Amino acid sequence: MKMKAALLALAVSLPFAGTACAQTVADVHFLRGDFGAMVSGTITGDAYFDYRLGASGGQELFAELMMSDTNGNGTIYFNILPPGSDGVAIYNGSIDGNVARVTLPDDGEYTIRVYLMGNDRDTGKTVGYNLDLSIQ
């Protein structure tokens, strides 16, 4: 990853370090000439973290979620929500896995929602993660 993409990822993740609230949102912007970034954070219990990014229909969104540390089982996932979604996903990580390559159907702002499931969510465990995002 280019140095400036790494700096962008750091700029996106630093304001949100620590435990996520019921919902935390960050806009992801790629630096000119870059098509991807890595963001990091933590999720605790039933909280979730939304990363928003604009894209055009026909572009391909790549997302890979990796656990970095946990005090539980590490049951962390992400969903991809299309523009205007009320929570209905076009990609569901708990079913399809933590690596996605999705051709986007419409122009607009997409949301990548990171969340916990199972015992980690129910017992308030904390899971650290790295989320690699790119659009081509």
Quick description:
With 136 residues, the chain is mainly beta. It contains 3 helices and 9 strands; from the N terminus they run αββββββαββαβ.
Could you characterize what this model shows?
The protein is mostly beta strands. Helix content is 15%, strand content 48%. The strands form two sheets. The chain has a five-stranded mixed beta sheet with strand order 1-3-8-5-6. It starts with a helix and ends with a strand.
Strand content: over 45%
Inertia-based shape: globular
Enumerate the spans where pLDDT stays under 50 for 5 or more consecutive residues. Answer: 1-22
- The succession of helices and strands, N to C, reads HEEEEEEHEEHE
How helix-rich are the residues, as a percent range? 10-25%
Count of alpha/pi helices: 3
Overall number of strands:
9
Structural class from helices and strands?
mainly beta
Largest sheet: number of strands, sense, barrel closure:
5 strands, mixed
Instruction: Give the strand line-up of the largest sheet.
Output: 1-3-8-5-6
CA radius of gyration is 14 Å
Q: Ends: how far apart?
A: 15 Å
Mean of residue pLDDT values: 86
